[in-house]
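User: Design a sequence. Structure:
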């Protein structure tokens, strides 16, 4: 393949495709170079995809770890609330028994027998 260069501006003006035997090696070389560039681009794309994939995996792992810590914190909080609930129930039972004892000891809260008062 031959190309003529325009002397005025240095651009190619004419490309001859008539004689392929002279340039067949360069055409094959060009294809090989093109293939190598394509492979390199695929490797770069593959590396970029791997990098993006690794970043995504890292992000997901960090998110899972954060959620695990949150779950542990919530579980500990639930356990603390359960203990507090049991403690409050016990205190309420004690106070209920105390109030019941006070009411039974007080004459204000005693039941009156209406039949005995009428006779």
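Assistant: Done.
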């Amino acid at each position: 393949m031959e190309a003529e260069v325009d002397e005025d501006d240095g651009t190619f003006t004419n490309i001859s495709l008539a004689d392929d035997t002279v340039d067949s090696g360069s055409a094959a070389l060009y294809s090989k170079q093109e293939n190598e560039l394509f492979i390199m681009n695929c490797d770069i794309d593959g590396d970029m995809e791997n990098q993006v994939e690794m970043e995504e995996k890292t992000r997901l792992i960090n998110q899972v770890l954060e959620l695990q810590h949150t779950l542990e914190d919530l579980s500990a909080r639930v356990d603390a609330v359960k203990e507090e609930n049991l403690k409050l129930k016990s205190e309420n039972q004690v106070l209920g028994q105390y109030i019941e004892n006070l009411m039974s000891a007080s004459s204000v809260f005693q039941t009156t027998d209406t039949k005995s008062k009428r006779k």
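Helices lie at 20-105, 114-118. The radius of gyration is 46 Å.
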